[in-house]
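Hi C.,

You asked whether I'd gotten around to modeling the 397-residue construct. I have! Everything is below, sequence then structure, no commentary in between.
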Amino acid sequence: MVSDATWPAIGWEERPWTPRVSSELVSVAVRRRHSGSYRAAVVPLIAELTPTLPGDVLAAADEASAEIARFDAELGVEVAPFASVLMRLESASSSMIENLTSGAKSIALAELGSAEKRNATEIVGNVAAMRAALDLSDRVDGTAIIAMHAALLGEVRPGMTGEWRNEQVWIGGTSFGPHNASFVPPHHEHVPSLMDDLVRFTQRVDLPLLAQAAIAHAQFETIHPFPDGNGRTGRALIHAMLRGHGLTRNVTVPVSAGLLADTTGYFDTLTAYRDGDPSRIVTKLAGAALAAITNGRQLVIELRATRASWNDKIKARSGATAWQLADLIMRQPVVDASAIAAELGVAPQNAQRAVAPLVDAGVLVEFTGFKRNRMWQATEILTALDDFAARAGRRVR
């Protein structure tokens, strides 16, 4: 492998531009601003490169890696409910970086099939992408990355999934053209070869994993291989690498929640990467992981305390279905009869028998007011999840 003191910066190439909007629909000034050639990024290949990182950056990455492994091991003996809770929180936080905000209750409702709030529906798509990333972590390749993206957007934008992009995209500026964009990723003809190169980089086993994952993420965002959903898919790729290389085995460390504290700084590190400095994205990811673990540990403490408090409140015989439901709502804090029946293996008409002791104890609250199609929420769990989001800097609605 080649080791260079300076990581290669992107270059630029001139590309002709054909306006997408009829000249009759825009002003002369707009036509002038978006006519003629534009500059698209020329992204260096990295599969054979080894970054030379400062000692303090490597030390930060090593510390974060050790904490990730410790946190994963701490929850390994009691994966449920924390695996699903942390995955949902990571998905919600990753979505918030793209300005998709929703509270824990709306997300839970969307998981039950409600399409009332589009943001929550898209976040549920991100949960599916994260789950696909972990399921495919043993073979991170182009097909797996396309599958992650399809899981993310298949329900809301199916026409954008299933392949690499086949058109020029850009970040910032206007929809008329790339001329005033803040960043123009490489022309789509380069995407397949760049992604093949990136996959080879992700599969290497001779690099510090957290640094490798951070650089792979920055390279992915620079290539921008899809028309939309690149940020969320790129952050799912981080988790696929952590799982695939064995750093995590049980839970998803919500690193996006750590990135939320300074999204401007996060985007600045991607710009620095494109200028030839990979150390900043490594440092940012290491810091985000440590912050997320601190936040996650507090959440776990709160959830454990809440669940323990129910033991004295719920009046049901030992072995009753009510206790199974109490465990279920730790990871699925909004339920209806169908969800209870499916999860606990009881008939829908018998779900009320499991619900009644939890309602009597104040653990569950019915919130629809209906006589049919009723739904219940575990308010204490929803509050803990929204508190996690607030600590991470994510506004909730």
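If it helps when you're writing up: The chain has a mean pLDDT of 90.

Thanks,
B.
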